[in-house]
Amino acid sequence: MELEAAFAFAISNIAAFGDTDVFPSPFERFLFADLHDKARFLLQEMHHNCDSHLASFPPQNFDMLCPVGYTGFRWVTQIDPIWNAYFLGLVVSIADTIEKSRIAEGERVVFSYRFSPNPETKHLFSDSSWFDFKRRSLELAKQYEFVLVTDIADFYPRVYHHRLENELRRLNLKSDIPSRIMKLLSHFSKTVSYGLPVGGPAARILAELVLRPIDLHLHRRQIPFCRYADDFALFVRSKEEAFGAVALLSDKLFNEGLSLQRNKTRILPSKEFIETSRLIHPLDHTENEAMSPEIVLLGLSVRYDPYSPTADRGRRESRLWARGRRGSRLLARGRRRSRLVTDSSYRLLNLAYEGGTPSRLDDTTKLKGFNPTIPSKLEVRYSDPKLERQVENLLEKCKRWLNLDGSTKLLPSRLVDTDTIEVWLPR
């Protein structure tokens, strides 16, 4: 894609979907939407005088810990919005070449982030999704005796820049765009020679390029496998073959400065893999009505990924189920219990209502009938964490909502992000 067109598409994509799927959108997103042409001209001017701009206005990024599940964390990066747009524009301009160098999408092997820009929707990627990866894995599992499932440990933070630079060179591009990309990554990582910024589509495209040699090696060895991002599924005839596949994959990843996550690496009989994977998306199964509502609920996706081309459809289907007859029965069952069940009632409320979990004070009317003193902590959202008085007011609202007496003290646990605080509740 020509660089000018790539800058224009990058601006449109950010205006439509934001710059990451982790942080709230910065206000520049709306400036990009309202002043599209001016933003594009600015990116072109930055490209012509990149070194000068880097010296005068270097990227101001924010690195912070983001919760993953209930007990895990990962480092995420909020890139300076202007430099993020420039970074995305550079990557989009070579993304066609990267896509052509990968295993063809039609072979149904690699399903993650297949570059296929849509001028109408402003999506960067095709409809190939994680569910397609799982469906194909189920198909192959029926043809083999064992399945090796694994993923890469701390993938994005461990991507070595010189390995990425080597892959960019192998594309044989007749421009200085690869060197500009590496220079930006060096600024983003504060001159540390490894790590991709988590959250945006540019890093996802580059991450796929880093894994291209692994994909091609497995493909050339005629080892049946599927991959989505850092998740692998390899299909073998025996346990001996499975251990050999683990050794091969570990060796190839080691050459790239990466390693497998040991506690997520498993060799499963195909029957077990199929049985456990049938819960990935119960909406796809004809036996849906015969399954318990708790099992169906566990298969519904709560997380909203704005970069998924099927995000709105998937969220809508899940919400319709949660608000329907079976979801209502499950919610009523939760109300009758002496305590909220995190894996069912909380998940159901999050699906059924936009932000309808107990983390939003203005949605607490939807929880009428639940015992609010059971959860061990509650999230409270406020506009500015620096305004201590505003935090105190919200804590008082929590106390009134929980029917606590005036002498009870609620203590903030920690800041989750720029507009979220966790509060410990008394037992």
Can you offer a commentary on this structure?
By secondary structure, the protein is α+β, with helices and mostly antiparallel strands. It is 46% helix and 12% strand. The chain is built from 16 helices and nine strands. The strands form three sheets. The chain has a four-stranded antiparallel beta sheet with strand order 4-5-3-6, sandwiched between helices. A three-stranded antiparallel beta sheet has the order 7-9-8, covered by helices on one side. It has a two-stranded antiparallel ribbon with strand order 1-2. α1 packs across α2 (28-34), α2 (28-34) crosses α3 and α5 (81-101) crosses α8 (177-188).
Question: Which strand order spans the largest sheet, edge to edge or round the barrel?
Answer: 4-5-3-6
Our measurement of the CA-to-CA distance between the termini, rounded to an integer number of angstroms, reads: 59 Å
Strand content: 5-15%
Radius of gyration equals 24 Å
Count every helix, treating DSSP H or I runs of 4 or more residues as helices.
Answer: 16
Shape: globular
Average pLDDT number = 77
Query: Which residues form runs of ≥5 with pLDDT under 50?
Result: 282-289, 334-349, 353-384, 414-419
